[in-house]
Write a structure and sequence with these properties.
six-stranded antiparallel beta sheet; mainly beta; elongated; SH3 type barrels; 110 residues
Length: 110
């Protein structure tokens, strides 16, 4: 289980994009995340008629290191550290592993 998942709201903590927020579009196995509207670069793209791509300069998001983003806590509106704990289920069922915010102990996953 990962601390940051697809669809989470995150804030960038370091680098030239510090303070920007966005939703996670993709989490890579290499320890990088793609965040919507953050770390945009201009790429010179050649036309490819086989794929139907036009040439020109396009803007696209590039991955950031997962260590440079923090999950946004909706209660405080700031970035927060995340931990894991097991929630006990009623009726003696198997416990569930969930993420929680370290500052207030609120559970991220419902």
């Amino acid at each position: 289980m990962q601390k940051i998942r697809k669809g989470d709201q995150v804030v960038v903590t370091t680098g030239r994009e510090k303070g920007k927020r966005g939703a996670v579009l993709r989490v890579f196995e290499t320890g990088k995340v793609l965040v919507e509207g953050v770390n945009r670069v201009k790429k010179h793209q050649r036309p490819n008629p086989m794929k139907g791509q036009t040439g020109g300069i396009i803007e696209k998001e590039m991955p950031l290191a997962i260590s440079n983003v923090m999950l946004v806590n909706p209660a405080t509106g700031k970035g927060d550290r995340v931990g894991f704990k097991f929630l006990e289920a009623q009726g003696g069922a198997v416990a569930r592993k969930v993420r929680f915010f370290k500052s207030n102990g609120e559970v991220v996953d419902v």
